Amino acid sequence: METRIQGASSAPTLAEIKENWPASVDVAKAATAFGISRSHAYELVARGEFPARVIKVGGRYRVITASVIGVLSA
After folding, report:
1. Contacts by residues 5-14 (CB-CB < 8 Å, ≥ 24 positions apart)
2. Are 2 and 13 in contact (CB under 8 A)?
3. What pLDDT, on a 0 to 100 scale, did the predictor assign at position 40?
4. Least confident of 3-7, 11-15, 23-27
5. 69: which DSSP letter?
6. Distance between CA atoms of residues 21 and 58, nearest Å
């Protein structure tokens, strides 16, 4: 039985994240896993408060998928 994360209908399941996501994703995609909007996610990144590990690659932010899994598995 698959359980949706955070009760959001568009949120991916933990199994989907584990099986289908690459090693890192953009902030907008990671936001879907936490059930937050893209704009709120970027606000959290700017404050250093995003719930998963964020790195900057060039001029873009990437979220480490393993850290998303870790947070959602806790």
Report:
1. 5/33, 5/34, 5/35, 5/72, 6/33, 6/34, 6/35, 7/35, 8/32, 8/35, 11/35, 14/69, 14/72, 14/73
2. yes
3. 98
4. 3-7
5. H
6. 21
- The answer to whether residues 34 and 25 touch, using CB atoms and an 8 Å cutoff, is no
φ, ψ (nearest 5 deg) of residue 42 = -65, -35
d(CA 71, CA 74) in angstroms, rounded, equals: 5
In contact, 4 and 13? CB cutoff 8 Å:
yes
Cα of 62 vs its chain's centroid, Å: 10
Q: What is the pTM of this model?
A: 0.85
pLDDT at position 7: 46
Q: Which residues pair with 54 in a beta bridge?
A: 63
Per DSSP, the residues of 4-67 read: BGGG-TTSPBHHHHHHH--SEEEHHHHHHHHT--HHHHHHHHHHT--SS-EEEETTEEEEEHHH
